[in-house]
Design a protein that fits this description.
The complex is a heterodimer.
Chain A: E1 6-11, E2 32-33, E3 37-38, H1 41-49, E4 54-58, H2 63-70, E5 84-88, E6 91-92, E7 97-98, H3 103-108, H4 111-117, E8 121-126, E9 129-131, H5 135-144, E10 149-155, E11 165-169, E12 175-180, E13 189-198, H6 199-211, H7 219-229, E14 234-238, E15 243-245, H8 249-258, E16 285-287, E17 292-294, E18 296-298, E19 303-304, E20 307-309, E21 312-313, E22 318-319, E23 324-330, E24 335-336, E25 341-347, E26 352-353, E27 358-359, E28 369-371, H9 373-381
Parallel strand pairs in A: 1-4, 1-8, 4-5, 10-14, 16-19, 17-20, 18-21, 19-22, 20-23, 21-23, 22-24, 23-25, 24-26, 25-27, 25-28
Antiparallel strand pairs in A: 2-3, 6-7, 8-13, 9-15, 10-13, 11-12
Chain B: E1 5-11, E2 31-32, E3 36-37, H1 39-48, E4 53-58, H2 63-69, E5 83-86, H3 102-106, H4 109-114, E6 119-124, E7 127-129, H5 133-142, E8 147-152, E9 155-163, H6 164-172, H7 174-177, H8 182-187, E10 195-199, E11 204-206, H9 210-219, H10 223-229, E12 246-248, E13 253-255, E14 257-259, E15 264-265, E16 268-270, E17 273-274, E18 279-280, E19 285-287, E20 290-291, E21 296-297, E22 302-304, E23 306-308, E24 313-314, E25 319-321, E26 328-330, E27 335-336
Parallel strand pairs in B: 1-4, 1-6, 4-5, 8-10, 12-15, 13-16, 14-17, 15-18, 16-19, 17-20, 18-21, 19-22, 20-23, 21-24, 22-25, 23-26, 24-27
Antiparallel strand pairs in B: 2-3, 6-9, 7-11, 8-9
The chains are: A alpha/beta, B alpha/beta.
Chain lengths: 382, 342
């Protein structure tokens, strides 16, 4: 097998429990985003656009949809004779079944996958974030710095540093300390969960970590702190641009709304860095004579008979006559019934919102309603 | 699975009345409905009817057609066995008329010999319809027909069903019989064959003039036509593009229109078809128009009853209107408006 310079490992087993019913039947990376995409389209498209054509996707939680979505990777041009995309679920060995207990254990259990390519570098990604990034530039930086590990970081507002893993660095950006969600941060450079490892270093530390029974087998909690402690060469790679963790209903909604801003840094219309996706092959959207659409993103296969503003509409959605939808995300194949009024909500895929349903934000205007089958059931029983 | 049926699409047709849209492309490849090409309808119908082997016979200007069809992957025709075949005419000087030219087939007779299917469905490339061919085949067999022509309200739809062995006989004996195409065979009053006519009851429109192209396009906005052409279980497949959803600006106003992906709409659009990646500037009004892929219409334009072909640019402040029954065509890649010559 041809030796690969860099192989990407994409951690896609996350449950995303703060997304509530959205992730009941699917893993977080498969959650729909931006009118036609799923979250995982972003790291996969970044890989293919960065010239990384060997990608292992580690799945665990609710993998059915994710597996069929990824398929052989052709949507992202990752169907390759040598390499390409490989879905890596946990598996049983003769002695035991090994679930992925942490991010590091997931990679450790697939050492044989990496061994067969014997790359020089391993790029570790998560399937939880929305961003566009050229990993090749980060790899060049990693090589230039002669780093053992390079961690991509982004400046976050100081008041939010307690939500992130913070990297303290020297003037040369060498990482001297890693603090997980510090109360008082010395720095506002947050880890984006994107790592480039020298393969030999990663291999050694994963094997050692596996033998440590006190370890939680997590990159952020165990591997990175140990590397720093042992004085290895860790560098921060400052990333500038749009990056968002869409781990909560609120942040998922916000990130969708960001796209409606004409000057949004995450430009989906940039053909030089396309975000690829499994295309549904549906007819064009139809805006009916009574329909009205403004400041919105609308995908194929939709039928809009009502009023839609500041809303992201996925494929196959129907908005019926008299309905008024504002600042909402309507996921694939949902139907908004006649005369509904919906504001600040995320409507789950395939949900039928009955005629005349009113969903408005409560007391605190920031509350985003997640409209699912259950929400509809509750509304009807009241 | 319909392994009995071989699909044959005649893509040689040239319509003089469609000239402005077919200078750079064969009729089969004329964009339609915002994201399709005319050939998508017959090709998808064949695939949806279970046909796994489709031969395309093009003649002129087939570069865009080949680019569109590629390996056939979008129609699931990239198969190890059977799949999509492309047989361009080896000789451009030979004059072909009618649908299903036997001369053209004769040049590729070995394909017909090798194919294992028992029946062949020969169709034109420019009919907009959604039809299941399985009931047609069942009826053809049950009625003991030699050749069945599909018709709509007594008019030929340019689609013929025939046993493959008979088709090969027709090809090899064409100089003796004088038949030059399938239409000749199906319309011969003194025929020795059992000729049948099968009536298709659904929506069907053969696109052969600009007026017809325009009317058929506008028909898409009728809910009953839409429903018939795009049922979920029998989708019209096409080459997919990775375009983002269409963005509607604050000032956008869109009514009774079909809009494909990747567009940026800041103006007013009514009764129109907007293809993939089209930009419509602020203050611009588009009425009764067909705007094709990647065309840019700048600010404060007024377009009424205009067909704008691909990659055109309409400069700010341009006004182009035409009578509803004879739409103006703006050619592919052209620039209109301030400073332009036309």
């Amino acid at each position: 097998m041809q030796k690969k310079k860099c192989v990407a490992m994409l951690l896609a087993g996350g449950k995303g429990s703060r997304l509530h019913s959205l992730t009941k039947n699917l893993a977080k990376p498969a959650v729909p985003f931006g009118g036609k995409y799923r979250i995982i389209d972003f790291p996969l498209s970044n890989c293919t656009n960065s010239g990384i054509h060997t990608v292992g996707v580690l799945t665990q939680y609710q993998p059915l949809l994710l597996n069929s979505y990824i398929g052989i990777g052709s949507a992202w041009d990752l169907d390759r004779k040598d390499g390409g995309v490989t879905v890596l679920p946990p598996y049983a060995e003769s002695s035991e079944v090994k679930w992925y207990s942490g991010t590091a254990s997931a990679i450790f259990q697939n050492l044989n996958y990496l061994d067969q390519y014997n790359p020089e570098y391993v790029l570790i990604l998560s399937g939880d974030h929305i961003y566009k990034m050229n990993y090749e530039l980060m790899l060049n930086y990693h090589i230039e710095k002669r780093a053992d590990v390079t961690i991509s970081v982004i400046e976050v507002p100081w008041e939010e540093t307690n939500r992130f893993g913070i990297m303290n660095t020297d003037a040369d950006l060498r990482i001297t300390e890693f603090e997980e969600k510090p109360d008082v941060a010395k720095n506002n450079l947050a880890s984006m969960g994107i790592y480039i490892f020298k393969w030999s270093v990663l291999r050694e530390y994963l094997i050692r970590d596996d033998q440590n029974s006190d370890s939680s087998h997590d990159f952020g909690k165990d591997i990175i702190p140990l590397l720093i402690q042992e004085n290895m060469n860790l560098f921060a790679y400052p990333f500038k641009g749009y990056w968002k963790d869409v781990g909560t209903v609120q942040s998922l909604w916000e990130a969708n709304m960001d796209l409606l801003d004409k000057d949004c840094e995450l430009n989906l219309f940039d053909h030089s860095w396309r975000i690829y996706s499994v295309n549904p092959n549906q007819p064009p959207q139809y805006i009916c004579p009574e329909g009205e659409v403004s400041e919105s993103l609308v995908n194929e296969g939709c039928k809009i008979e009502g009023e839609v503003s500041r809303t992201v509409v996925f494929q196959g959605v129907t908005v019926k006559k008299g309905a008024v939808v504002k600042e909402t995300v309507i996921m694939p194949d949902a139907v908004i019934g006649h005369n509904c009024v919906i504001e600040k909500a995320i409507v789950s895929p395939g949900v039928y919102v009955p005629d005349g349903t009113i969903i408005k934000p409560g007391e605190s205007a920031n509350d985003i309603t997640l409209v699912s089958e259950e929400t509809i059931g509750e509304l009807q029983s009241n | 699975m319909n392994k009995q049926l071989l699909g044959v699409i005649d893509a040689t047709t040239v319509h003089d009345d469609l000239h402005e849209l077919s200078i750079h492309r064969s009729v089969a490849a004329i964009p339609f409905g915002g994201r399709y090409r005319l050939i998508d309808f017959i090709l998808s119908n064949m695939v949806n009817s279970g046909i796994q082997s489709v031969a395309i016979f093009p003649k002129f200007q087939y570069r865009s057609l080949m680019d569109h069809l590629g390996s056939g992957r979008n129609w699931d025709l990239n198969r190890k066995r059977d799949g999509l075949f492309f047989f361009p005419a080896p000789n451009l000087d030979k004059h072909y008329t009618g649908i299903g030219t036997l001369d053209h087939f004769a040049d590729n007779i070995d394909f017909f010999e090798r194919s294992t299917q028992e029946y062949a469905l020969i169709a034109n490339s420019y009919t907009v319809f959604n039809m299941d061919f399985q009931p047609l085949l069942d009826w053809h067999i049950k009625s003991g027909c030699d050749i069945t022509e599909v018709q709509k309200e007594g008019k030929s739809l340019g689609i013929y069903l025939v046993k493959k062995t008979l088709l090969m006989d027709l090809i090899t004996t064409r100089s003796e019989t004088g038949y030059s195409n399938m239409r000749d065979v199906a319309t011969d009053l003194d025929s020795q064959f059992h000729l049948c006519y099968y009536n298709f009851e659904g929506y069907a429109s053969m696109v052969d003039t600009i007026g017809n192209y325009f009317r058929t396009s506008m028909d898409l906005m009728k809910p009953e036509v839409w429903k018939e052409l795009f049922p979920k279980d029998r989708p019209i497949l096409t080459k997919v593009k990775d375009e983002p959803p269409t963005r509607y600006d604050v000032d956008a106003s869109v009514r009774n229109s079909m809009v494909a992906n990747g567009g940026m709409i800041e103006g007013t659009v009514e009764n129109s078809i907007i293809a993939r990646g089209v930009k419509i500037g602020k203050g611009t009004v588009i009425r009764n128009c067909i705007i094709m892929q990647k065309t840019q219409i700048k600010e404060n334009c007024l377009l009424d009853s205009v067909i704008v072909d691909k990659d055109a640019r309409i400069e700010a402040g341009t006004v182009i209107t035409a009578p509803a029954d004879s739409p103006t065509v703006i050619r592919k890649g052209s620039v209109q408006g301030v400073g332009s010559s036309s």
